[in-house]
Specification:
It is built from 13 helices and twelve strands. The chain has about 300 residues and is of the alpha/beta class. The strands form five sheets. A four-stranded parallel sheet has the order 3-4-5-10, sandwiched between helices. The protein has a two-stranded antiparallel sheet with strand order 1-2.
Length: about 300
């Protein structure tokens, strides 16, 4: 995987963008924003691995926010040790939790044994890093630079006066966190290495929202008073819900208890404020005026008539 180093005074954070320096992917948002780091005085480097991109470099803290399995993360762990780092942070995923009868998902709940992120966390527990480490499990994100179409999916429909098709009853709970809050959680771990060492943290917000609630909050941000919300059964209408909808159509949410207790962390962003910010950005981007296909939507909406 390509690698990049983000540098700041005293502490430097290498990360791994999912594309090479000359990739077409870097020409599209949010990857096109990579240059803003350079403009802010952050040094970046691209290569086949951290070691090849940053030979002879030393770092206080190394963060892997890209690797999804031990094959990808292993070389970053090795680099952290060789670079003299005093802390290794891994960005895992809340998607590794097993479906259970009790929610929200908490640190320590059962996870999928075959998940790549789990293999990385187990290796860290077994001492693979040979230095203090912590793992963070994010869920859905919003905020500037996010690569997930969470709120944008709703905005795309609201901007065009379309109905919002939601699979199931719409009461399913999920959680959407602002990227700045999650970044602050990682920063809190850097500031308190002893408190974070050997810990797993759910990198999520502290309030859940229903799928219908997400639609209504997005509508409020867009100034739409009465959004048209249509519920449908994906299996009955032959819609691939993974492609047609940005969230899991079941209750799926975690709670950041460990970060609150061990790091004194608390989110600063409300979902309402985050969505208002994102709608302003959406409008300024011109995305709402671009041509877009709604083929899967039309299948779902037709079934509800």
């Amino acid at each position: 995987m390509p690698a990049a180093a983000l540098t700041r005074p005293r502490r430097r954070f290498p990360a791994e963008p999912a594309c090479a320096a000359d990739s077409d992917k870097l020409k599209k948002p949010p990857f096109a924003y990579w240059g803003e780091l350079t403009a802010a005085g952050v040094a970046t480097a691209f290569g086949d691995s951290p070691a090849s991109a940053l030979p002879g470099s030393s770092f206080d803290v190394v963060v892997d926010n890209n690797g999804k399995d031990l094959e990808a993360v292993g070389p970053v762990i090795a680099f952290a040790k060789a670079a003299g780092a005093s802390q290794f942070l891994f960005v895992s995923s809340a998607g590794i939790y097993k479906t259970g009868d009790e929610l929200p998902h908490l640190e320590g709940d059962a996870v999928k044994a075959d998940a790549g992120h789990v293999a990385v966390e187990e290796a860290l527990r077994a001492g693979a890093a040979q230095l203090p480490w912590a793992s963070f499990r994010p869920q859905y994100l919003t905020g500037y630079g996010s690569n997930k179409d969470c709120e944008e999916w709703f905005f795309d429909r609201l901007a065009r006066g379309r109905a919002i098709p939601i699979p199931g009853a719409g009461v399913q709970l999920t959680v959407v966190a602002h990227s700045e809050d999650i970044a602050a959680m990682l920063a809190a771990a850097v500031a308190q290495p002893e408190a974070a060492s050997g810990r797993i943290f759910n990198a999520v917000g502290d309030r859940a929202v229903t799928l219908d609630g997400m639609a209504r909050l997005c509508a409020a941000a867009a100034g739409v008073e009465k959004p048209s919300i249509v519920h449908y059964d994906p299996k009955a209408v032959g819609v691939d819900v993974k492609k047609a909808f940005p969230f899991r159509p079941v209750h799926f949410y975690a709670e950041p208890r460990a970060a609150k207790a061990a790091l004194g962390w608390a989110p600063k962003w409300s979902l309402e404020a985050a969505l208002a910010e994102r709608w302003a950005f959406y409008v300024a981007s011109g995305r709402g005026k671009k041509e877009k296909s709604f083929e899967e939507d039309d299948k779902a909406l037709a079934s509800a008539k």
